[in-house]
Amino acid sequence: MTIDPAELSALLDGELPPVRAAEVQAAIDADPHLAAAFRALGGDDLAWRRAAQTAAFQPAPVPAVIPVLETTACAAALLAVLVILRAISDMPEAWLWFALPQAAALALATLWLTSVAHANHYAQR
Prior knowledge:
Blueprint: H1 5-12, H2 18-30, H3 32-54, H4 66-89, H5 93-123
């Protein structure tokens, strides 16, 4: 009978059906090499479980690049407004009433998103 290494792990975790677990256990009892592999797997499993229990999980630090991104976003908003205003200056007056609110909305949305990112950055410190 061939025992798959995944079945050894499943036996160790108690995930095999009772009939198959008995067959795998009988094979382990009959084969010294398989028994050694099962013991090694059990030792590794125990070591991983102990390490997981003693691990201290902490949130990752916030990258220092956030303030740079905030500054870049502000500069991009300003540049977008300037480009739109330059394009507006060449438009007929009827289009001016359409484009100016869009430019203002774009600038405000970018600045708002930047302030949200800024607040989140400092809230995590």
